[in-house]
What does this fold into?
Amino acid sequence: MNLITIRLAHLCENGDDSLANDAPWRTAPTHIRKTSDRHKNLPNFLLYRKEMDVAWITQDFPAIAQAEIETLAGKSAKQNGDLVFVEASLKGLEKRLAFTKATYTLLFSCTKKGMQKAFEAHDWKITKDFRVTTSRSPLPAPLLGHFIKTKSGKQVNLHTPTNHVMVFGRDKIHVCQLHGENDSQFEERRGRNRPAKHPTTMHPKLARAMVNLTGIKKGTFVDPMCGSGGLLLEAALLGFTCEGVDIDSRLLAKAQQNLQYFGVSSKLTKADSTKLNKKLSHVALDLPYGRGTTRKDLEKTYQAMISMLGRNLKGKAAIMYPHWADVPALVKKAGLSVCYELEAYSHRLLTRKIVIAKR
Ligand SMILES: C[S@@+](CC[C@H](N)C(=O)[O-])C[C@H]1O[C@@H](n2cnc3c(N)ncnc32)[C@H](O)[C@@H]1O
It folds into this structure.
């Protein structure tokens, strides 16, 4: 037994294998449970054998992070702490997801006690070189790296690795291979860093999530209450054709300035969008909160806007609204169905909520 094997054995013997009896598939959604017979011959140190991808999410809004992933991956997902597991490829989605730090393919999941056996049993398909990073792992990255090196015969490369192995978890260990990291420069686009400011524009991360929650993959993105263009900016930066409408021409001028500053463009129209009469596939909007406007007047605007969506929406709309309004009820009254109800943002006086409506 070499030094690494001894240390692994020592650390793992002190581990807890009872987790094998609490394996995720036993409590997993139906789409995972259905195939549980595949686990019959699974060694007890492995938690499950499924082809799954994993997203490492930020902790700002975990429910929104999961909804974004499910919408773009087209599959329901399972969340465990800051990891979201989905039986679909997430490769490339890290470039557009707002609340995901990085995406991975799951190599295997094992118990703490079974870590050594699982590392030994795994067929390490390392093409050139690799790096190991850990998050809360009971065994340190250099030790795991040394072990993979011995098994695969490939070199460690800390700076520009071809393969990046990530080990998550303290008790249930998830060993993943990196697809890619989120490199979106959200902070650069915050309201205060734009040439034309607007007090109620949302954080670019939230705006990006709203765009993603419309499920857009191609086609035109529409914000019928575009204000200074926060949502249009995120959609345009993802490469979608955009159309913004606002009743206030001063705000349209601000949207124009902001989009131009970041090198993108959108069609911008001055109109009362409650009267729009055209088919809309992917819509996101932030309803007005109305300084100096009564709630009653705002409610009338909300009703008119959601009725307009009821007449014109073909696909999905992500609608942000204040906590005191029952926008999901308006969505249903307009003949649309509700896919998600999410809570987005709070301060002392206001919680912003999001409802995803679809035809
Ligand atoms: C909360 S702001 C939108 C902020 C925007 N997302 C941004 O990034 O600046 C709501 C916007 O709805 C617009 N609005 C209100 N009633 C409208 C209507 N009937 N038709 C079109 N726009 C309207 C307001 O002028 C305001 O710009």
User: Anything to note?
Assistant: The chain has eleven helices and 16 strands. Confidence is low (pLDDT under 50) at residues 1-37. The longest helix spans residues 295-312.
